[in-house]
Automatic annotation (TrEMBL):
This is Uncharacterized protein. InterPro entries: NAD(P)-bd_dom_sf (IPR036291). SUPFAM superfamilies: NAD(P)-binding Rossmann-fold domains. It comes from Peptoanaerobacter stomatis.
Length: 66
C-alpha cells in the first residue's frame, strides 16, 4: 500500500510529507489486507487492462475536468 500511495503522490505532483507509521496499530495487531484475485480471474477471465499508474492518471484527469 505504501508504494501505491507514494506513486499517487508522485503522479499528482504533491509536495506533501507522507507520515507512514505515525498512527498506532489497533490493540488486535497489525492490519493486513492481501487479496488474492486468482479465483475471480479464473472464474471470469478478467484481466487488468491498464496499469495502476494509468488508472490513477485517468481518475485525476476526470476529477480535474469537473
Amino acid at each position: 500500500m505504501k508504494e501505491y500511495i507514494e506513486e499517487l503522490k508522485d503522479i499528482m505532483g504533491s509536495k506533501s510529507k507522507l507520515l507512514f507509521g505515525k498512527i498506532s496499530y489497533p490493540k488486535e495487531g497489525k492490519v493486513s489486507i492481501n487479496p488474492d484475485i486468482t479465483k475471480i480471474q479464473s472464474n471470469t477471465q478478467w484481466r487488468e487492462e491498464i496499469t495502476f499508474e494509468q488508472g490513477i492518471k485517468e481518475i485525476i484527469n476526470l476529477y480535474e475536468e469537473k
